[in-house]
Amino acid sequence: MPLFRLDGRVALVSGAGRGIGAATALALAEAGADVAVLSRTPDQIEAVAQQIRELGRRAVAIPTDAGDPEAVAGAVARVAEELGRIDVVVSVTGGSMPRPFTNTHDEALRKSFENNVVHGVRLVREAVPHLARSDAASVVMVSSSTGHLVGRGYLAYGAAKASLDHAVRMMAADLNPRIRVNAVAPGAILTEALEVVAADPQMKATLEGHTPLRRIGVPEDIAAAILYLSSPASSYVTGQVLAVDGGLVAPNMPLPIPDVEA
Fold first, then answer.
1. Annotated catalytic residue, options 154, 157, 228, 236
2. Per-residue pLDDT at 95 exceeds 90
3. 157 is annotated as an active-site residue
4. What is the pTM of this model?
């Protein structure tokens, strides 16, 4: 459908070396965009960039540490210089290990907020001058179902992703009407991080059994949602967090964390 096409557009995808980021970069390229792929893994992003070129699109691979402000600023400037413009920014960064609340120390909270909120917001801020020159600018942040679902052990990650969700609404308010800002909130997705868990038949059955659609998601499920939010098909959508989680109403991996005792 023409509304989902991105011909003549340039997309920047962070965290694009594997998983959701790589699948998204390829989906945007298949829709017609030229794509810049960023991550800390040169070999991985170069492989993704080569796949994009094989689709007939331009691609640039830029090794970038999302935690380094100067590196991020330099990467954004390079994308604009080499590909001529920036119309779409997709931030795929974050993560945090679960742990009991009583073991969630200050540093864990700070690190989770830094990884899940600061890094992505920084990328968007650096890209705003370029996005503002586009007539169809879109930002898509990758959040998590943990940002709105409640379960034991996820305080640092869930609180950070909830903050990211509201940051999306705030950025949308600040950047209206020129730049749309939305997020996708995935559930359990079969990336490298989950493959170890899913390799255990009992754990896999638990994940599937606690998911209303009875399966684990794949990166392409999220990439399709990101394509929608990046394209003219969603031109009347901003400030929204789209859950793509198989219908979850609670985390599908309950952690065996006992009650606090007196």
1. 157
2. no
3. yes
4. 0.95
